[in-house]
Queue: 4 jobs
Job 1
Amino acid sequence: MMTERAFADSLDELRSLLPGSIGEWKAEGEDQVYDPRTIFDYIDGAGEVYRAYHMRRCLSRRYAGPKGGVLILDIFDMGSSEDAYGVFTHDREGNPVPLGQEGLYNAGWLCFWKDCFFISLSDESRTDSSEEMKGILARKVAELIREPGRQPVLISRLPFQGLQNGSLRYLHDPVILNTHFYLSDENILHLGSGTEAALATYERMGAGLTLLLVQYPDEDKAALAHGSLMKHYLPNADREGIARLEDGKWAGSGRRGRFLAAVLESSDREPAVRLMAEALESAEKK
């Protein structure tokens, strides 16, 4: 007789299906659950990152193992697969691992995303036992999540040629943008919960470029943001929307409908012109 496999669609269901023990490792103490307000009590420094991606709740469970080892499992319900993907792209340091839809391992920290969940496993001991347990538990959690989610549609609108592996970030918030590319202390692009942005680096024609593609709720908001960017970041732009920055690099911006494309920096002018035009054309078609 076959046993029906249990899956989780919500954080509460996932919590109820988590193993209480695996080998010598056993759940320790009570699970802790945090919301967007109390997340700062748990991870004060990074709490704002999860809030910027519309985090709903975080479940934290500790597993105790041999020789005083402790493994920490954090499961973030981000509310959508798009924002689970987004928070995963915030920190892309590490080596890819086949977990969930995308996974990374870096110096004892293992993370991945699947559906609307972002999962983090960490330990300080990094013994053979804890490393093995981390992998087993991560695979178990990934298996419990019923369906994969989808990447943001905006990602498919980016030009593919020359896109650098591991450089792609998906975001809504100007603070997150400034973490990866400092633009301004002010929110000159009018980013917010209703906007979607993709930031990526490219290598083209021997030049290194940083591209930002933003989708706004409507054309009026896109036009307002484009005007603000030209005023504050590219006041000396030419008719093609390209300007030379104080450090000698090139930058430019253009808009079509609800989409704004900005090459925030490029080591050469012509690749910036071409990438910006290609990004706008690609965004409109899809």
Job 2
Amino acid sequence: MRFYLLIAAVLQITLSTVGTAAADSRESFVFGIVPQQSASRLAQAWVPFMERLSDVSGYRIEFATAKDIPTFEACLAKGAYDIAYMNPYHYTVFHDLAGYQAIARVRDKRLRGILVARKDASLENLEHLSGNAVAFPSPAAFGASVIPRAELKARGIDISPNYVKSHDSVYRAVAAGLMPAGGGVMRTFNNVPADIRDQLKIVYRTDGYTPHAFAVSSRMNGAQSEALFEAMQQVAANDAQTLQPLGMKGFVQAANADWDDIRALQLTQNHTQIVSNESLQCHSG
């Protein structure tokens, strides 16, 4: 009897090992997410979605991000991510520089930047910001930085940008009274902890633009890209709850020309200070 129990145990371990090996044999792709928030908060929101993508697509989709937006830019420049969720301006740059090709964007959405201030602030109009320091995540954070700064400049309002590396850091700095105002976007504002958000008010909304791109590197072939997009569509249709933490309702297939409204702005390195660092060690590069 003991012999048969031993054989059964060995067989169970063997089957388990074979199953694990089979799972590990799936083709693996690293999915890089722009670090608008802390890595832990991003993982909490994105990993369930990526797990469902893995189940549906048959690929193993691995979550990755970077410590801050400049580091993420440097990793995009190296083509370090197989798949990436990047802001509209990043897409126009890294499509040309690293060969990323958009496959999807969020359905029924335009990206608008916001400026926030403390609820108890006496900030009644944007002119009151003139001559003050204003918090932004990074120079090239499109909705939260590039567009608000451009629209402030168009109004003749001169401010001193203070780059604090993430959206969450902007909201925390303003809530703590360290900055009179700061730039963000509605998705990250809605996702910031309630004890921070409840101290803030939105004082300005920018014009709307084509939203973030879901883009793949040139290492992925057409069949893989199509399978990934189909999996995204299936997850959106059948597992909508996984999209709720992301503030997304679904996806549409994207074409490179969708971001021509961003290109029309003719932004330059002086506007965005895009970072490139070939020596940087990224998640997958």
Job 3
Amino acid sequence: MKVLISLAAGGLASVIAKVADSEAKWQIGVGIFVGGCILILQLLGDLINQVRDFKAVLPQHNAQTQETVVRSFAQISEATKFYSEMERLPSDGVAALATSAVEVVSRGPDIMRRFAEELMRRLAVDMEALKSGGVDCAGENHDWLLTLTNCAMNSIDTTSTLSLVDRDFWNSGPADRYLQAQREAIARGVTVRRLFLVADSADLNDDLRQLSQEQEELGIETRVVVRTQLPQNVRRGLVDEFIVFDKATCYEIEQDQLHVNTSTRVRAQEEHVRLRTQRFAELWDAGVPTQTVGTPAGE
């Protein structure tokens, strides 16, 4: 608009110049000059106002830009850290997991998709729990037991109670798979020791000797402890079932009063493992080779 006004003023001056005398032309020129100056001043004023407005919003704009840049770099740093950590995992396993998960979620039926999502959610929960050195689940988790057995490289020290329920376990399919995994561990140089825990001397019978003999034939070292015959200083400690893998991780089963396995936990905290390792050593030293125990009187 200001430019149009200036052009109009210039055009008017041109018309007047043709009809006016010299003095009038000079006066008109002065007027046009003054008008031009006013126009320039208006334009400068607008420019100053725009610069002032820009300076007012510039800090906010800079802050937003800086925040965006910092957030972007943080995301890049997080992604870089993630991929750096991923390189420490078995590449084939991670790739297979990702590929299979995407395929099931994108192509499978709804129930399989939900099932796959639930498995991944549980895996994420377990991994998060393992960051603090332990993970728990309800009931007895045979998959964890077999996996830890397959991962052991040095030693497996295990206690085994022999209630009626536990005796039935050794005649089950999970027990066969467990013993097979221990046999394979022994083949790769792992020392496997099993300590049978019995309530009293009446449990030192032919069934126990046969069970221990079968396991010794697999290369497992066995001993037996009668709880009521433990020395007083040893009897005060833990006598429940637990397994120590490589003296670094514990697999533990909690039972109720009916000897039903109610929960499973895996612990890798250094102090916890140290105490379990020490406890196994105490019980092992207090035990005797299973094949040397006598038959209780009256049999």
Job 4
Amino acid sequence: MAQLEYLLPRLVGAWAHLKKSQGGIGFRGPGETQLEVDRRRARERIAFLKKNLKRVAVSREIHRAKRQSVPIPTVSLIGYTNAGKSTLFNCLLQAHEFAENKLFATLDPKTKKLRLPSGLNILVSDTVGFIRNLPHQLIESFKSTFEEVGDSELLIHVIDASHPDRAQQTETVERILSELDLAEKPVIKVLNKIDLVNVHHPQGNPSSGTSQGAIEISALNGLGIDRLLAKIEEVLSGMYDKPVHLLIPHHQGKILSEVFTHGRVISTENTDDGTLVLAHLPPKWQNLFADYRHTHT
């Protein structure tokens, strides 16, 4: 739908060369006729897709609610179109999602679970690429991406380090986040395609300007991925509140396992009433385990 909305006002130029191919009073050229046909078909297709979008939105909301009921931190990959988000997604998840160097190659957010080196589980979402001067009529087409980004605990801003307009593309993404009231979200900047920098910018410093402090990677060959994973863990760990004491009854072994899986356990102590655990937990999991909170004396 985004592509059709984008192309609809540009159909005139496609048939301009035929407008005068057939003249005469009361006659219309074949180009003009074909233009009307193309416009009608495009509008019909847009109307059909909008109707389907409403059904998809309901389904998407159900899936999002299910994910939130199992409170695993969500990390979204964002960035300008063609920055390499899908390639990074595939690299992190060992997945095989479609990735191609063209506009709107990713048309809908994809989410998969990733286990970090520390054992912490997170959800990683690949989103639609942003573009400069996004027309108002395309906002609805990208609604799923904006919703996914808004629900995330952490954003990974993927930047094409080899692109000559890198700074402007970075500013475009940051401006869109600001317009969506998402500028306060924690962000890790990533300079992707660093292996191409020496080819396209032999004298340039990819980490200067708006990209200062960014992590340099190549999603295509895995360069720098270990540093990125370590940074993700560092940022997410910083979101945890002070350690909490939980008293897990002995028969609740599954709950104890989830504490180890989704938190950073500092210490455990076996008592008559259960296992006393001191752990750092993400806010979502603190709420889920509220019934097991224990005032340690």
